[in-house]
Design a protein that fits this description.
Elements (H helix, E strand, L loop, with lengths): L12 E3 L24 H9 L22 E3 L21 E7 L5 H16 L4 E7 H6 L6 H9 L2 H12 L1 H26 L3 E4 L6 H7 L8 E4 L17 E4 L2 H9 L7 E3 L15 H7 L8 E5 L8 H16 L5 E5 L4 H8 L7 E4 L5 H6 L3 E4 L3 H9 L4 E3 L8 H9 L3 E3 L3 H12 L2 H14 L4 H10 L21
Parallel strand pairs: 3-4, 3-5, 5-6, 6-7, 7-8, 9-10, 9-12, 10-11, 12-13, 13-14
Antiparallel strand pairs: 1-2
Helix pairs in contact: 1-6, 2-17, 6-7, 10-15, 13-16
GO cellular component, one term: chloroplast membrane
GO molecular function, one term: 1,2-diacylglycerol 3-beta-galactosyltransferase activity
Subcellular location: Plastid, Chloroplast membrane
Length: about 475
């Protein structure tokens, strides 16, 4: 059962600076490894400073601008003290939302940015959001290695599988959580004191246990919401019984949440949050192809390597081009190869002589348009890419997955009848050429994909979250919630 909140944010100190919705921290704001001490001033400066661009390979979603005339920061720390009385003085201010992520892959920040953008679009001028990497910007050493560690493990699947299973085993997970809590508990309290959120939204499986443990010590804690961004399955760390609400994208994930102890009343199922470009219907395919300099009459195969350009993209693209040429001729299909941040791969493929028409791209900000112009997609089994491909009605050929985390996504795609899976570039090439040669099959799979697509999921999630802080029942920017930061 969710907690009830009344309008009345805590007393704040106004700072007459130009506020803005916060997104990813710039490189200059990240703390040097040699200086890991968290200071409230750091977060206060984040709140007051102009919005910084996303530092992620997954999304370029703007957060929007806050139209209020003040920004606020606190001048006292957060700690548990039952003897202190609540501070209920009223002040006109936007609702402050803290999004907790970790940049282990680009999908978590992309989801947080999508939610932040939807909040600003639905409730303009009434939201001040902050997206923070919990482990690097709050907890610090020795846990600030998570993003780099993720990249290393993602390139070494056996090690990733071992780490995944380590986190699933209750005893080892509990020991790790206790150590992390000993390191990060006080730092998170300082972060709360600095930003003083009315609402906390977790968009990562490892940003539940410390925040919720801290919130239990507050007299009237802000609502805590989890938005699960795994599609076919989910790690147990996503699901904490103390969360007010937990949003799941599929029936499969809902069942896992229930097995982990969550109640039906805590769960909401709308789909996966996706980037704003996918919230609207795509333009007519021929028009998009013309804009992207693709041949309108030729089928388009989109080969995606993710934000980091990993997953054997080069070998797959070469195999597809050769097979299409040998089976269907030079005009049998055209390829678009997205290399992400892998500049070396982009240069290598750009300098290659291709038997069919091929466009090689690096990191792109208009993935929605490339998907709208395509007839099928080849990608690793990342949940965000799958969700976006379904919205655009694309049949999917999955070329790889992270053991444990992404394996259920493969089952979700194959059992839904929208795609297939193979790691072998030659088999992938044969599948693609067969599909391209069979327009009726492509159309059938495309229809199934559109049925599964959830373009309104981001809006639906945000509207449901907004009920916790009464945004659905107020006007102007004077609404808030009663949240007690004791000190």
């Amino acid at each position: 059962m969710t907690r009830a909140f009344i309008p009345a944010p805590p007393t704040l100190v106004p700072s007459r600076t130009s506020p803005s919705t916060q997104s990813a921290p710039s490189a200059s704001l990240r703390r040097p490894r040699a200086k890991q001490t968290l200071r409230c001033a750091f977060f206060a400066s984040r709140i007051r400073s102009p919005s910084t661009p996303a530092n992620s390979g997954a999304s370029n979603t703007p957060g929007g601008n806050d139209s209020s005339s003040h920004s606020y920061h606190s001048s006292f720390s957060v700690h548990a003290n039952a003897n202190h009385s609540p501070m209920h003085s009223y002040h006109t201010s936007p609702i402050r939302i803290m999004f907790l992520i970790s940049d282990t892959g680009g999908g978590h920040r992309a989801s947080a940015q999508a939610l932040s953008a939807a909040f600003e679009q639905l409730y303009p001028g009434r939201i001040k959001s902050m997206i923070v990497d919990f482990w690097t910007e709050i907890v610090g050493q020795p846990f600030d290695y998570f993003p780099e560690g993720y990249s290393f493990l993602a390139k070494n699947p056996p090690l990733w599988r071992a780490a995944w299973q380590y986190g699933r085993f209750p005893l080892t997970r509990r020991l790790t959580e206790e150590f992390a809590n000993a390191v990060g508990n006080q730092n998170f309290r300082r972060a709360l004191s600095a930003f003083r959120p009315h609402l906390i939204v977790s968009v990562h499986p490892l940003t539940q246990f410390i925040p919720l443990r801290v919130l239990r010590t507050l007299r009237t804690p802000p609502p805590f919401v989890t938005v699960c961004t795994d599609l076919g399955g989910a790690h147990p760390t996503w699901f904490h019984r103390d969360a007010d609400l937990c949003f799941v994208p599929t029936d499969r994930v809902r069942q896992i949440a229930l097995r982990c102890g969550l109640k039906h009343s805590q769960l909401r199922q709308f789909g996966l949050p996706v980037r704003p470009d996918f919230w609207q219907d795509a333009r007519e395919k021929g028009a998009v192809k013309g804009q992207l300099r693709l041949v309108k009459e030729v089928p388009t195969v989109l080969v995606v390597g993710g934000g980091d350009g990993v997953g054997g993209v080069g070998r797959i693209a070469v195999s597809i081009a050769d097979k299409v040429h040998s089976k269907l001729g030079a005009s049998g299909a055209q390829l678009v190869v997205v290399c992400g941040k892998n500049e070396q791969l982009k240069q290598k493929l750009s300098g290659r002589s291709w038997p069919v028409s091929v466009q090689v791209k690096g990191f792109v900000n208009n993935m929605s348009e490339w998907m709208a112009a395509s007839d099928l997609i080849v990608s690793k089994a990342g949940p965000g890419t799958i969700a976006e491909a379904l919205i655009r009605g694309l049949p999917i050929v999955l070329s790889g997955f992270l053991p444990g985390q992404e394996a259920p996504n493969v089952e979700y795609v194959t059992q839904s009848g929208v795609g297939t899976f193979s790691r072998d570039p030659k088999i992938i090439a044969r599948i693609v050429s067969d599909w391209v040669a069979n327009p009726r099959l492509l159309e059938e799979r495309s229809k199934r994909a559109k049925v599964l697509g959830r373009p309104n999921a981001t809006y639906d999630i945000v509207r449901e979250i907004a009920k916790l802080v009464q945004l659905e029942h107020t006007s102007g920017v004077s609404s808030g919630v009663s949240t007690v930061y004791e000190g």
